[in-house]
Amino acid sequence: MPELPEVETTRRGIAPHIEGRRVTGVVLRRPDLRWPIPREVAELLPGQVVDSVDRRAKYLLLNTSAGTALLHLGMSGMLRVLPADTPIAKHDHVDIAFDTGSVLRFTDPRRFGALLWQMPGETHELLEGIGPEPLTDDFDGERMYQLSRGRTAPVKTFLMDNAVVVGVGNIYASEALFAAGIDPRRAAGKVSRERYLRLAQEVKRILALAINRGGTTLRDFLAPDGAPGYFFQELFAYGRAGEACKVCGTPIRVVTLGQRASFYCPHCQR
DNA sequence: CCTGGCCCCTGCAAGC
DNA sequence: TGCTTGCAGGGGCCAG
């Protein structure tokens, strides 16, 4: 489900309800999601005030003085702030209750999501060594160009590599390459500096625009307030196989790259 | 080091 | 209608 814009939309949705609020209890309805849920979540989080809700890559970080809860939504995860007495539904795996009478409820049918813990001053090993945030100046086309030299993997796979830049998933990789006019199958090492400069610009523009639209709802993504993401209407490539390119009318094609469906216009992208 | 493939899991839609 | 198959927004891990 969620790429960076959807995770950021989720962050903005939950933050006003839980920042500055005290956790009164944690309910784990199963001991694991993708990984076992560390004991610190149940032992240290209750009683803490959530000082801030941050995002790093596709992780949400609930910061407290005792440590940070890391939440990842995987493919199908969803977070909502609900009244504490809201009935439990299937796949409602975790509740974090607050002194406001609300609970932050984590729902995730496929359980590719995660709930982890990071002690104060530490960086979780999964966050070590990952690339820059795409919407900061640490990410630019020059970086992509330098890292890509000699690489034979498709440029789309390269763009989705978390060591290169974080947060760009399957939808926005296709969209950014469309906007930059680059064929997703092209070897990363054979894309020019000039084209990487353009690609980085488009990544930034598209992610910012998608956040502005509340993300992309393909089937089930809803923001914590229940709103769908409206960027779906602005997709040029993703999910449009066989449909006419919105720019030139050529049918959009789909090809599998890195075990992921990749959509492109054979006329606009070279 | 880099690359491609596999796997985790459930739900849904399409095809027979 | 019901069964089977394939696919889905992520990403860690492994062998080559």
UniProtKB/TrEMBL annotation:
UniProt entry tagged with the keyword Transmembrane: no
Active-site feature positions: 2 (schiff-base intermediate with dna), 3 (proton donor), 58 (proton donor), 260 (proton donor)
Keywords: DNA damage, DNA repair, DNA-binding, Glycosidase, Hydrolase, Lyase, Metal-binding, Multifunctional enzyme, Zinc, Zinc-finger
Cofactor entry: Zn(2+)
Record keyword DNA repair present: yes
Cofactor note as given: Binds 1 zinc ion per subunit.
EC number: 3.2.2.23, 4.2.99.18
Gene Ontology biological-process entries: base-excision repair
Domain Formamidopyrimidine-DNA glycosylase catalytic, first and last residues per copy: 2-113
Enzymatic reactions: Hydrolysis of DNA containing ring-opened 7-methylguanine residues, releasing 2,6-diamino-4-hydroxy-5-(N-methyl)formamidopyrimidine; 2'-deoxyribonucleotide-(2'-deoxyribose 5'-phosphate)-2'-deoxyribonucleotide-DNA = a 3'-end 2'-deoxyribonucleotide-(2,3-dehydro-2,3-deoxyribose 5'-phosphate)-DNA + a 5'-end 5'-phospho-2'-deoxyribonucleoside-DNA + H(+)
Annotated FPG-type domain residues: 236-270
Role summary: Involved in base excision repair of DNA damaged by oxidation or by mutagenic agents. Acts as DNA glycosylase that recognizes and removes damaged bases. Has a preference for oxidized purines, such as 7,8-dihydro-8-oxoguanine (8-oxoG). Has AP (apurinic/apyrimidinic) lyase activity and introduces nicks in the DNA strand. Cleaves the DNA backbone by beta-delta elimination to generate a single-strand break at the site of the removed base with both 3'- and 5'-phosphates.
NCBIfam families named in the record: fpg, PRK01103.1
Subunit structure: Monomer.
Family in the record: Belongs to the FPG family.
Name of the protein in question: Formamidopyrimidine-DNA glycosylase
Organism in which the protein naturally occurs: Luteibacter pinisoli
Gene: mutM
